Prior knowledge:
31% of the residues lie in helices and 22% in strands. Helix 2 crosses helix 4 (156-181). The radius of gyration is 17 Å and the shape is globular. It is α+β, with helices and mostly antiparallel strands and 219 residues long. The N and C termini lie far apart (60 Å). Strands 1-6-5-4-7-9-8 form a 7-stranded antiparallel β-sheet, with helices on both faces. A two-stranded antiparallel sheet has the order 2-3. It is built from 5 helices and 9 strands; from the N terminus they run αβααββββββαβαβ. It has helices at 4-18, 45-51, 65-76, 156-181, 193-199; strands spanning 32-33, 78-80, 85-86, 97-103, 106-111, 116-121, 140-147, 184-188, 206-215. The relative contact order is 0.21.
Amino acid sequence: MTTRRETNLGILSAAAAAMSPGPAAAQELRPIELPAPRADFGRSLAQALKLRRSTREFAARPLLPQVLSELLWSAYGVNRPATADRTAPSWRHARETEIFAAMADGVWRYDPIAHRLLPQLAADVRAQTGAQDFVGSAPLDLVYVSNAEHLSGVSREEQHRVAAADTGFIGQNVYLYCASEGLACVFRASLDQERLARTLKLAEAQFITFAQTVGYPKA
């Protein structure tokens, strides 16, 4: 009989395997070890909900490491270490979605288990993450990538519907963190998913759902 501990170890092992090194082009980059999120941060939920909004003007300066850390943890970090469960739900516990962080000096994949960023591509691809002008100069564009292999047993249409819903949970977490910390943010669907997937050298089973831009408000 499989024990709960063995099941949890299996979950962690599978998650670690999904975070294997990216394309060869990423060898020029190094993993980014994120600082631990503070034990308590931000405004109350009620205040964050009142302040939540979409903004399309961003200052160019990069996010502070602590802010980037807490943003990613709020989005899809591990909030129950014993089971590796996340701050956002996923359909049938599939955990099919990954967050790719496109910044001026490259693209990284967020590893929720180790709470760090893993190199994906040593290139500035921010302009490819959307059709709007601001995406190329904002400090951070989050790209949400889902894996169909985690959604077996259902049609392709159902896979995309599930992935869209799960990505929406993550995107709302980002919105609430940004509202709580005074950041600018907008969730976006206008992007060339196929072109960006080729640029990021995604596997055949991976597909892009949405993107989300985050930064400090433009003065």
